[in-house]
């Protein structure tokens, strides 16, 4: 049996993350952790967890992936790689798009957002006509949106902007006459429609933290998980709540392969499987050594959502591995431009 514990980093604070990791290992005997891939958090806890042979799986790849830390595994292409998948999905379905404006909040994860957004934008030959971070305490977004719209973008990418802030930005865009599409993490319809009418966002907001409630897109296994979630916590679904299910699928397969629950044996067994048939996401492959110096990143497909039919829901599942292989030079260049060490 797996026993679950929860810990709070109090809003991506590295010292709090380390405090939680120590409590989990030393007081509660935890051997496996799931966390965000925010680089500063992973870097804060990884040395301690390595000392105690504890496995850390994240839902995306950040700078915390390193050859000397085999116990840190990126088990999904959720954040931040999903930012690239969103751009690729939009580019494939909207060939007329040529110009993009980029913004997101100035935060511990804004660099990772921009690295992957810019990589995908360049790979699709879009022009970046605007790029600026906004302060997290911004209340009036009209000046920012006015500046963006002056560059006449075909689409606006909001990165990891939270739903309430996205709603305020969309309100400014609507008032200033912008009629194009938006890309971002999460367009919670109930939140966004407190600021703009639903008609403004219909089929115009592309993101990845969407509801998993369309069987034809998801398949029966994932849709069944969604239904189970809804039956236990009606109306409380958040896409991030699914991330540990997907990451720990890899861990469970590693336990089976290793014939053990020992974390060291598990991660050694995991890396011995070159192609992982993920039961929820399909075929996934290990990669990433050009960026991280190791292939500890399981490159999975991931969901793309849109505001359609009155809700923000999954409309496709989009690949990543092939795009990474074709555009690794651009991806490395963008990491280096943001001061990251690479291993090409």
CATH architecture of the largest domain: 3-Layer(aba) Sandwich
Task: Estimate the helix proportion, in percent.
Answer: 40-55%
Q: What name does CATH use for the topology of the largest domain?
A: Rossmann fold
- Alpha-beta classification: alpha/beta
Span between termini:
42 Å
Task: Report the top-level CATH class of the largest domain.
Answer: Alpha Beta
Shape: globular
The CATH homologous superfamily of the largest domain is termed Response regulator
How many structural units, i.e. domains?
2
C-alpha-based Rg, rounded: 20 Å
Overall mean confidence score, pLDDT:
95
N-to-C SSE series?
HEHEEHEHEHEHEHHEHHHHEEHEEEHH
Number of helices: 15
Largest sheet: 7 strands, mixed
Order the strands across the largest sheet as they lie in space.
Answer: 5-4-6-7-8-12-13
Poorly predicted parts: none
Strand segment count = 13
Strand content: 15-25%
Task: Describe this structure as you would to a colleague.
The chain has two domains: 14-79 and 219-337, Response regulator (Rossmann fold), CATH 3.40.50; 82-207, Response regulator (Rossmann fold, 3-Layer(aba) Sandwich). It has helices at 14-27, 39-51, 82-93, 110-123, 142-149, 163-175, 189-192, 198-201, 215-218, 220-232, 243-258, 263-271, 289-292, 321-326, 328-337, and strands at residues 32-35, 55-58, 72-74, 99-105, 127-134, 155-157, 181-183, 205-207, 275-278, 282-287, 297-299, 302-308, 311-318. It is globular and about 60 Å long. 42% of the residues lie in helices and 18% in strands. The mean pLDDT is 95. A hairpin with a 3-residue loop joins strand 9 (275-278) and strand 10. It is α/β, with parallel strands linked by helices and 344 residues long. It contains 15 helices and 13 strands. It starts with 13 loop residues before the first helix and ends in a 7-residue tail after the last helix. Helix 1 runs parallel beside helix 2, helix 4 packs antiparallel against helix 15 (328-337) and helix 11 crosses helix 12. Strands 5-4-6-7-8-12-13 form a seven-stranded mixed sheet, with helices on both faces. The protein has a three-stranded parallel sheet with strand order 1-2-3. It has a three-stranded antiparallel sheet with strand order 9-10-11, with helices on one face. 43% of the residues are buried.
